[in-house]
Design brief:
five-stranded antiparallel beta sheet, eight-stranded antiparallel beta sheet, alpha+beta
Length: 498
C-alpha cells in the first residue's frame, strides 16, 4: 500500500548553507533563545555521557528546547549546518542512539519538556517527552488513571512509546504505543504537524514503532485507563538445577498457552547467576490487577508445580503501590540522579504459534548454569510474557502500527554487565550474550521466525532491519525517503532510505 502523505510532508525544502560551523550554530540557537552545550562548555562531558558506558560519543552540541517552536528552531539550525539531528528523551538507548550513535550529531535533549495534562472528561493525557516513566505513573495516578509501560522508572516516555513500551499491564491494555492517539511532531524541514488517524496518517503509523526516524515528537496524546481497584506485586525466587529450571519454564509456557491466564496478569521469568556451577536462580515476578483474594488461585496452575521458593515477596494494595513495589528505580525520579552501566544486551521475540522446544530450554539453562557461572557477576535473561489467550498486544492488527510483532508469546532479553559496571567491557562478554540467543535458536527449527524488540536495540545484530521491523521495513523506507529525504534524523539503526 502506498503511503498517504499530506502536502506539508512532501514540500520539504532545504535552502540552507552546507558548512558545518559550530560558531554559526551557536548564533542560530541563541537567536531562538535555545540553551545549548557545546564541546568547550562546562557541563558538556556530563551531558554527553551515555547510559551505556561502552560508548563514547561526542555530539557537536546538545540543545535544550522548552517548546515545540524551539525544537523547530534547533532542527532548522542543524539542517543549516548539514548536521544529523537526533532526539533524546530519557537517554536510555542501549547503543547511545539518543546521542547520535556516532560523533558530530546535534542532540535535541527534551528533558525540559515535562508538562502532563489529563482531560477530566475523556481521561486522555497529553504528555511531553521529557517525562520519565516513574513520574508519568505518579501524575496519572493522582488523576485516578494508568497507562501500560515498563517498570524501569528512569526510561523516557518518548523513546519508550516510539518503539514499543511493554509492561505488566500490557496484556490487558496493550503496548504504550498502542495507546498513542495523536502527537505533535517536528519534521526535517522544521514544520510542526499533527500526527493522528485523521491527520498525516502515515506519519501516525510510523511514529508508533520507529518514531525517531521521521521527526521529533514534542508531545503525545495518550489514551489512559481507570486504575484497578486493587493490585498485587509479586516476586518468587528459587535456586534450581538444570532439569528443574528447564521443566519450570516449560510449565510456564504451557500455562501461558493454556488459555487460562487472565488479561489482568502480567509477568515474566528471569534467569540469574546461580550459587553453584550447574545451577541458576529462577525468578517469577510481575503484577496482578485482579481482586487480591484471587491472586493465589490465578497463579496456582503454574505455581503449584514448582518447589517451595527460597524467597517470597508479595505486596497487595493500590495500583501505584503495586507499581512501586516492582519498580526498578525510584518512582519520583527527581529524588536521585539516574545511574549508568556498561553492558551488552540483545532480544529475541518468540512467536506464539511456534512454541519453544524442551531441547531449546535445556540448552539455554545448561549454558547459563555452566558458562554463566564462570562469567560476569551480573547478568540476567528476562523472559517477558506478551501473549496467551486474547492478549491485547496480539489483538492489534499487524498493519495498524509500525510495530511488527503481533504474534509474540515471549520476549527474551539477555543482558550482561562488565564486572564493576564500568568500562572497559570485556570482549568475552559479547560472545557470552550472543551464546544465550544461539543456544535457543540452534535448538529450534531452521525456519523458526523469531523477531527482535526495538527498545532493546543491538547494533551488532545481523539483519536487524528484518528482525526489528519484519514485513514493515520496505514501507518504512519509502516513507523515510518522502518525509526526510536528506536523512536528517539519522542514527545507527534509523530507517534507511530507498
Amino acid at each position: 500500500m502506498r503511503p498517504r502523505v499530506t502536502f506539508a510532508l512532501l514540500m520539504v525544502s532545504f535552502a540552507f548553507s552546507f558548512a558545518q560551523n559550530a560558531t554559526e550554530l551557536k548564533l542560530q540557537l541563541a537567536a531562538g533563545n535555545v540553551e545549548a552545550l557545546f564541546q568547550d562548555d562546562a557541563g558538556y562531558v556530563a551531558a554527553s555521557q551515555p547510559y551505556n558506558l561502552r560508548y563514547i560519543v561526542e555530539p557537536i552540541a546538545i540543545a535544550y528546547p522548552e517548546s515545540v517552536e524551539q525544537i523547530s528552531t534547533v532542527v532548522k539550525a542543524g539542517v543549516n549546518q548539514t548536521l544529523k539531528v537526533v532526539a533524546r528523551s530519557g537517554g536510555h538507548s542501549y547503543i547511545a542512539n539518543g546521542l547520535g550513535g556516532t560523533n558530530g550529531s546535534l542532540v535535541v535533549d527534551l528533558s525540559q519538556m515535562k508538562n502532563i495534562t489529563v482531560d477530566a472528561v475523556t481521561g486522555n493525557a497529553i504528555i511531553e517527552p521529557g517525562n520519565r516513566l516513574g513520574d508519568v505513573a505518579l501524575v496519572l495516578n493522582d488523576a485516578g488513571r494508568g497507562l501500560p509501560h515498563g517498570r524501569c522508572t528512569y526510561v523516557g516516555i518518548g523513546g519508550h512509546s516510539g518503539f514499543g513500551g511493554w509492561g505488566f499491564a500490557s496484556r490487558m491494555w496493550g503496548m504504550t504505543l498502542d495507546n498513542v492517539l495523536s502527537a505533535t511532531v517536528v519534521l526535517a524541514n522544521g514544520s510542526i504537524v499533527t500526527a493522528s488517524e485523521d491527520s498525516n496518517p502515515e506519519l501516525y503509523w510510523g511514529i508508533r514503532g520507529s518514531s525517531a526516524s521521521f521527526g521529533i515528537v514534542a508531545s503525545i496524546e495518550f489514551r489512559t485507563y481507570v486504575v484497578p481497584s486493587s493490585a498485587t506485586a509479586f516476586e518468587f525466587i528459587w535456586e534450581m538445577d538444570i532439569p528443574t529450571a528447564s521443566n519450570a519454564f516449560m510449565e510456564f509456557q504451557s500455562w501461558a498457552l493454556s488459555g487460562n491466564v487472565p488479561l489482568e496478569f502480567g509477568g515474566e521469568i528471569a534467569f540469574l547467576k546461580g550459587l553453584a556451577y550447574g545451577q541458576v536462580q529462577f525468578a517469577f515476578l510481575g503484577n496482578y490487577f485482579g481482586p487480591a483474594d484471587s491472586f493465589n488461585s490465578t497463579i496456582a496452575p503454574f505455581f503449584d508445580k514448582l518447589p517451595i521458593p527460597n524467597t517470597t515477596n508479595v505486596t497487595q494494595g493500590t495500583w501505584i503501590e503495586a507499581l512501586t513495589a516492582i519498580a526498578a528505580g525510584n518512582m519520583n525520579t527527581t529524588v536521585l540522579p539516574d545511574t549508568n552501566d556498561t553492558f551488552y544486551a540483545k532480544s529475541l521475540m518468540a512467536p506464539q504459534l511456534s512454541p519453544l522446544t524442551n531441547a531449546s530450554m535445556i540448552a539455554l539453562v545448561t549454558y547459563l548454569s555452566e558458562v554463566g557461572f564462570n562469567n560476569s557477576d551480573f547478568w540476567h535473561v528476562e523472559v517477558e510474557l506478551y501473549g496467551g489467550n486474547h492478549s491485547v498486544i496480539n489483538q492489534v492488527d499487524l498493519n495498524d502500527t509500525a510495530f511488527a510483532h503481533r504474534d509474540t508469546l515471549f520476549t527474551f532479553q539477555p543482558y550482561a554487565s562488565s564486572p564493576n559496571l564500568l568500562p572497559p567491557y570485556p570482549n568475552n562478554g559479547f560472545e557470552f550474550v550472543d551464546g544465550m540467543i544461539s543456544s535457543l535458536t540452534s535448538n529450534m527449527p531452521s525456519d523458526w521466525e523469531w523477531g527482535a524488540y526495538p527498545n532493546y536495540i543491538d547494533d551488532r545484530l545481523p539483519d536487524w532491519q528484518r528482525r526489528y521491523y519484519g514485513s514493515h521495513y520496505d514501507r518504512l523506507r519509502l516513507f523515510k525517503s518522502l518525509v526526510d529525504p536528506f536523512d536528517t534524523f539519522h542514527f545507527p539503526t534509523s530507517i534507511e532510505e530507498l
